[in-house]
Amino acid sequence: MAGEQSLKRTMASQLADSVRNDIVNGKFAPGARLNLNDLSKHYAAGLSPLREALSRLSTSGFITAEDQRGFRVSEISRKELVDTQRIRLELESIALRESITNGDVNWEGEVVAAHHRISRIQKTPEGGRLALDKDWETAHHNFHTALLSACESEWLMLFIKTLFECSTRYRKAVVLSDRPHKRDVANEHQNLMDAVLNKDADQACALLGAHYNETTEFILASMNEGEK
């Protein structure tokens, strides 16, 4: 019995990861109802671990549980976007300062390597098709993760991971792939890396803030444009 319960919890964890990734990557639209029978077929999973997985996700903001009506993907809003980005910046600034303090030459090498990978595929500004490209998304995530990887607080990094996924969900949900943008994201990443390697925490945090604020403003503009 104990082994069966453990297996069920493991399956629920795996399903929660799969559903969350699909929400973040836009496979389930904001506000979409999540039918358990349909999801069971899609993920080839039983109803019990699937229900547990959705219940877990309802505590992280990706899914809304409705009394007697099941689950649906949480809606997006300007208020949540601004609040999420504000808290994300505050937490990442703490982690970035700690990384700069703790980081050794191996950490610096990881940052340089992650930047090299994203610079090799970063040929157009974020907000164009590149922002929706899977390879770019992976490289982008790895670069920002590398910047913070010398932070030793597991709780802090857990919260940051959730907020990063929320930000990605907003970009994929509302950014128009053909919308023009004059932003030079490659230069933003270069300047951010330079400040980090120079151990200039104040400058690095200022650049990180400007980087995220540009993204927030672009998403808000895309949301406004989508409502016209």
UniProtKB/TrEMBL annotation:
Keywords: DNA-binding, Transcription, Transcription regulation. Signal peptide: none annotated. SMART domains: FCD, HTH_GNTR. GO terms for molecular function: DNA binding; DNA-binding transcription factor activity. Residues 9-76 form the HTH gntR-type domain. InterPro entries: GntR_C, TF_FadR/GntR_C, Tscrpt_reg_HTH_GntR, WH-like_DNA-bd_sf, WH_DNA-bd_sf. The keyword Transcription regulation applies. This is HTH gntR-type domain-containing protein. It comes from hydrothermal vent metagenome.
